[in-house]
Amino acid sequence: MANKKNEKVYKIVSENLKQLLKKNNETKSELARAIGVSPSTVSYWLNATSIPSGKMLQKLIDHFHVNLSDIIGKQESGIPDLKNITALSFEGTPLSEEDLKATRNYVANRLKEKRKKEERFNSIIDTLHSDKDSLSDEDLTKIQRLLNK
């Protein structure tokens, strides 16, 4: 089982590179040739199997004429940030400013709790994986289910 943080980074880089290729109407083979790597290396990046090294990131930045954040930064989802929501309604009735603030606080607290739980789980899994007698993926899934109860 791969580290969840790494998986997220790999997926972000993958999606950003796909968007850049699409935007530039370029194939993975053309990109590979332009920056001096094999097409399979580009495929690994696009499939979120690996990410470019620092040297390759610089070549990608130069090739696409973008900033580093355009490659490794999170994609904007188009969804407004909770902090920026200025109006909500419930059952057709607009929430008061006080209710809106309470809703923001409730959601923020729940998300913080969820993230702490995920961090704790990932820490446990990392510890288990560093052991010589690593557990199977099935065992890890069982542990995850127990932690989520």
Walk me through the structure.
Strands 1-2 form a two-stranded antiparallel ribbon. The protein is built from seven helices and two strands, in the order αααααββαα. With 149 residues, the protein is mainly alpha-helical. The model has no long low-confidence stretch (mean pLDDT 79). It folds into two domains: 4-72, lambda repressor-like DNA-binding domains (434 Repressor (Amino-terminal Domain)), CATH 1.10.260; 82-147, no CATH class. The radius of gyration is 21 Å and the shape is flat.
Q: Layout of SSEs?
A:
Elements: H1 4-23, H2 28-35, H3 39-46, H4 54-64, H5 68-72, E1 89-90, E2 93-94, H6 97-130, H7 137-147
Antiparallel strand pairs: 1-2
Helix pairs in contact: 2-3
Helix run count = 7
Helix-strand category: mainly alpha
Query: Which regions have little confidence, pLDDT < 50, spanning 5+ residues?
Result: none
Element-level helix/strand string: HHHHHEEHH
- Please state roughly what percent of the residues sit in beta strands, choosing from under 5%, 5-15%, 15-25%, 25-35%, 35-45% or over 45%: under 5%
Strand segment tally: 2
What characterizes the major β-sheet?
A: 2 strands, antiparallel
Average pLDDT reading: 79
How far apart lie the N and C ends? 21 Å
Shape: flat
**What fraction, in percent, of the residue positions are helical?**
55-70%
List the domain count as a whole number.
2
CATH arch. level architecture of the largest domain = Orthogonal Bundle
The main sheet orders its strands as 1-2
Cα Rg: 21 Å
Any idea what the CATH superfamily of the largest domain is called?
A: lambda repressor-like DNA-binding domains
